[in-house]
């Protein structure tokens, strides 16, 4: 029984690391979406640059298992969108305004992927809890 309970706790801890990583991913995605239409603070400057989260795998010695964590958040090096708008205060000398390299469709796709992964980890925790409860119910009788 001791090994079974520690396996249950390990499963829940590993799933929890997935929840934390996906929550961090959602934070980065929300930052990208919030800044999708922002411009530079000064004329001709660079606007917000899209951020891309990375994940790392690390050995958790207390669990003796590999867990996932949000790694570095790196800037997307793709080019900015440029739009001709000489009346915009952020326009350069030629009248062009740089907009962030954020594509809302890509962000929505990433958000759905993060959401599904988050839900999968939640389901693991729920299933583990049900298994523990069923085991306890069997032991009571």
- Rg calculated over all Cα atoms: 22 Å
Task: Output the helix-strand order.
Answer: HEEEEH
**Structural class, from helix and strand content?**
alpha+beta
Mean pLDDT: 93
The helix fraction, in percent, is: 40-55%
DSSP helical segment count:
2
Give the terminus-to-terminus CA distance.
Answer: 16 Å
Spans of at least 5 consecutive residues whose pLDDT stays below 50 are: none
Number of extended strands: 4
How much of the sequence lies in strands comes to 15-25%
How many domain units? Answer: 1
Strand numbers in spatial order across the main sheet: 1-2
The 3D shape can be described as elongated
Largest beta-sheet details: 2 strands, antiparallel
What do these coordinates show?
- The chain is 50% helix and 21% strand.
- The protein is α+β, with helices and mostly antiparallel strands.
- The chain has one domain (3-140).
- A two-stranded antiparallel ribbon has the order 1-2. A two-stranded antiparallel ribbon has the order 3-4.
- The chain starts with a helix and ends with a helix.
- The model has no long low-confidence stretch (mean pLDDT 93).
- It is found in: Bacterial flagellum basal body.
- Keywords: Bacterial flagellum, Cell projection, Cilium, Flagellum.
- Residues 13-39 form the Flagellar basal body rod protein N-terminal domain.
């Amino acid at each position: 029984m001791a090994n079974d309970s520690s396996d249950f706790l390990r499963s829940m801890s590993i799933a929890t690391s997935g929840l934390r990583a996906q929550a961090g991913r959602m934070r980065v995605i929300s930052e990208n979406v919030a800044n999708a239409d922002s411009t530079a603070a000064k004329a001709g400057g660079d606007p917000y640059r899209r951020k891309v989260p990375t994940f790392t795998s690390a050995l958790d010695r207390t669990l003796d298992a590999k867990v996932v964590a949000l790694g570095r958040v790196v800037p997307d090096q793709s080019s900015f969108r440029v739009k001709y708008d000489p009346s915009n205060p952020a326009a350069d000398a030629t009248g062009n305004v740089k907009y962030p390299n954020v594509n809302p469709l890509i962000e929505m796709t990433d958000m759905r992927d993060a959401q599904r992964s988050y839900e999968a980890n939640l389901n693991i925790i729920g299933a583990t809890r049900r298994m523990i409860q069923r085991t306890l119910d069997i032991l009571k009788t």
